[in-house]
Amino acid sequence: MIELLFEPGDLARIRFARSPMYELMSSLRIADHADRVRMHQPWLRSVRGGVAGLRLELLRPLLADPRYVPEFLMPSPDRMDTRFGEELDKIRATPDAQVRAQLDLLGGGAPLPGALQALYDDPQRQLGRLAAEVRAYWQVAIEPIWSRLAGLLDAEVGYRADQMTSGGIVRLLGNLHPELEYAEDALRILWPGWQSQSRLDGAGVLLVPCVFAWPSLLVDTSPQCPTLVYAPRGVGQVWDGSARSSSPPVADLLGRSRAELLARLDLPLSTTQVARDLGLSAASVSEHLSVLRRSGLVTSRRSGRQVLYQRTALGTDLLGAGSGARIR
Fold it and tell me: Which structural domain, as residue segments, surrounds residue 258?
């Protein structure tokens, strides 16, 4: 069991962030986990050909150890709207000494593979090559689905905020993951065979929901930024909506653009995300959303600087009726 001991100041420093890079790195590691392969099969089928054509000669061996990922590959996100480009810049700017220290941990004293030895010998030159590999994988495997991932992560944080409001820290942390337990000002990670205890000393805890982490819990107890990476609720929803009809049956009633927009809003998305996904202008999407919201088919809420829209139960019933389902 791992215990993280809270002081009052630590409770005030519990915060959420999302990370495109955490999703990217976690997605590359699912091949070794049969349960994750089954869960993410629709995604795997859609990207298999594109990923097979990539040369990931640095990235794959860096992720080969099932128990350790070099920290410079997954820089701590500092807010909900962390951008992929910002995280990639952090990887590229990793100091030489940090790269070498973490490669020593990865190798465990054993000789490094040739590609990683080159990274050890000349970190600054090879980090540029690594960044190019990461970007290529992002463009093929994660960027096309990022708006769906971000929508689910936003929904997760909204749900946890409601839990915090109604039940405080105990409810927020108490059912975050089956391997977590919060009691007596201590957060316990229930891992048999692990024995450690540490005080947070004002650092608090960063909570990072990550779709491709499912069903695992990832823990970083470093004193600078203790972090828990966990799977959000409703992971399957990401792929449930991945095979939507390009023209739902209710298009005759709503018009094709509004029907497609309504079908896409099973997860909370911003105007910009929907516009990009559907190939429409932001102004056009905003107008359609206003009509759908006045009709009670979508709802909206603010998340930081963004307004997120999601289909209501009435909107879901309408889509279901258009597909031949009965409304009782």
Answer: 244-322
Report in angstroms the alpha-carbon separations of 10 from 4, 14, 36, 183, 193.
Answer: 10, 7, 33, 14, 26
- Per-residue pLDDT averaged across 46-65, rounded? 93
Q: Where is the domain boundary, 122, 147, 172?
A: 147
Rounded to an integer, what distance in angstroms lies between the CA atom of residue 311 and that of residue 235? 17
Give yes or no: residues 30 and 142 share one domain.
yes
Tokens of 129: 């090559």
Q: Is the domain of 134 the same as that of 152?
A: no
Q: Are residues 313 and 289 in the same domain?
A: yes
The answer to whether residue 130 sits within a structural domain is yes
| pLDDT for 255 | 87
Least confident of 104-108, 304-308, 321-325: 321-325
Which contiguous run of DSSP H or E holds residue 220? strand 218-220
pLDDT digits (tens, 9 = 90+) for 203-240: 889 999 999 988 888 888 887 888 999 999 888 778 86
Rounded Cα distance between 328 and 149, Å, is 33
Distance CA 49, CA 122 (A): 32
% helix, strand, coil for the chain, step of 5: 55, 15, 35
What domain count does the chain have?
3
Of the residues 130, 147, 164, the one at which a domain ends: 147
Distance CA 318, CA 266 (A): 13
One domain, residues 53 and 103? yes
> 235 in a domain, yes or no?
no
Nearest to 147 by CA among 7, 317, 261: 261
**Rounded-to-integer distance, Cα 252 and Cα 241, Å:** 21
Map residue 269 onto helix, strand or coil. strand
Q: What is the pLDDT of residue 121?
A: 96
User: Alpha helix locations (H) across the chain?
Assistant: 8-11, 20-28, 34-39, 41-52, 59-62, 84-92, 96-107, 114-121, 123-137, 146-174, 237-240, 251-254, 256-264, 271-278, 282-294, 313-322
Judge whether 310 and 264 are in contact, CB under 8 Å.
no
